[in-house]
Amino acid sequence: MRYGSNLSRRSFMRIAGAATVAAPILTEAHLAWAQVGRRTPLDLPPGAVLINANENPMGPCESACDAISKAAMNGGRYDFKRTFELTKVFSEQEGLKPNYISVYAGSSEPLHYTVLAFTSPEKGYVTADPGYESGMVAAGIAKAKVSKVALKSDYSHDVKAMLAADPNAGVFYICNPNNPTGTTTPKADIQWALDNKPKGSILLVDEAYIHLSDAESCIDMVKADKDLIILRTFSKVYGMAGIRCGFAIGRPDLLGKLQAYGQNPMPITAASAATASLKDATLVPTRKKIIADIRNDTFEWLSANNYSFIPSVSNCFMIDTRRDGKGVFDAMVKKNVYIGRVWSVWPTHVRVTVGSKDDMAKFKVAFKEVMDAPATATLEMPELPFKTPFSHLG
Ligand SMILES: Cc1ncc(COP(=O)(O)O)c(C=O)c1O
């Protein structure tokens, strides 16, 4: 099996196992495709429906595409000023000082580096369960203790239980809205966690999906110089997962700790596209509505067919199939519809990304056929390419 354009499984394993820090930085797409096992994005049958990796089928907006082609013509230059311009535009929009923003090629990189910088064998990592696993992989590399804390019954983060889980934690990771549930955590709870966390620790608040919801950002806590780092990405509402751009937002002394792990100059295409996207005042409200309409239509259909799901305010949601979720996932793959992952804590749930109208129409047909058929036996769970960092998590 191949994991990337030119990585065989063996070479991926060698990279994952070889070095402490030079391990792969995992994105949602790595995790999503690892579960498919037999197929990769490179050998998909024609017409495959890709609603597995929380991508945005709308792609970059028109002004971002124009900015990319104009920047490409200047691609012989490093042209750092495009990253400065992006930082300036974002800092003005958010009322942040520019040195409170670090630009990366996506938010996976600063997520990974924050965990490496603030966890260790003595300082643990606390996350929600089910939650986005990429930080756990970095914590594994740092040999930090990982504490997974169940979501509350309203699917928000149980911040009190998270703080109680590890008094020596270095990082408390709060993904708001959460991946995979698409549910939010009240800002008052995040504030409580900030006020009560152990000294020397930080909150890592991942706002990858915040534009899709009405959740309030925690950027004001950064402005108040508190101990937290916020992550933002252009991969979701802005549709730039393949273009790669994201931010770490925090006090300069906190951001400085991430730099020890490296900071590559930004591709000028990504910086230019991100700036153009920020300047498009209609992008967020328009796309938020398009995604919400498709999501709500899917929810109506699920309800009408008596399928149980968790109401989400994001571009992904979980369905409780009330049978082995991996079996459903595999049966959907056979119908050329690639849905998202199964979390071991909830083995009957599958995550589904909100795709285009057409994607969701195909999803409905395939899902009904799968659910109308008797449950199939689970195919063997594929080996994850990053077995080394994950293996201690059990
Ligand atoms: C919760 C969360 N954080 C961070 C990321 C990282 O995205 P990227 O590296 O594309 O910015 C993702 C990707 O899906 C995500 O789901």
Walkthrough of the structure:
It is a single chain. By secondary structure, this protein is of the alpha/beta class. The protein is 40% helix and 14% strand. The chain contains 15 helices and twelve strands. The chain has helices at residues 9-18, 28-36, 62-73, 81-94, 108-118, 134-141, 159-165, 187-196, 219-223, 252-259, 268-279, 283-304, 325-334, 357-372, 387-390; strands spanning 49-51, 101-104, 124-129, 146-150, 169-175, 202-206, 228-233, 246-249, 308-309, 316-320, 337-339, 349-353. The strands form three sheets. Strands 2-8-7-6-5-3-4 form a seven-stranded mixed beta sheet, sandwiched between helices. Helix 4 packs parallel to helix 11, helix 5 (108-118) packs parallel to helix 6 and helix 5 crosses helix 10. The longest helix is centred in the last third of the chain and has 22 residues, at 283-304. It is globular, with a radius of gyration of 20 Å. It starts with 8 loop residues before the first helix and ends with a helix. Mean pLDDT is 90; it is low at 1-20 and 379-394. Bound molecules: pyridoxal-5'-phosphate (PLP). Pyridoxal-5'-phosphate binds at residues 27-28, 54, 106-108, 111, 132, 175, 179, 206, 208, 233, 235, 241, 246.
Quick structural overview:
This protein has 394 residues and is α/β, with parallel strands linked by helices. The protein has helices spanning 9-18, 28-36, 62-73, 81-94, 108-118, 134-141, 159-165, 187-196, 219-223, 252-259, 268-279, 283-304, 325-334, 357-372, 387-390, and strands spanning 49-51, 101-104, 124-129, 146-150, 169-175, 202-206, 228-233, 246-249, 308-309, 316-320, 337-339, 349-353.
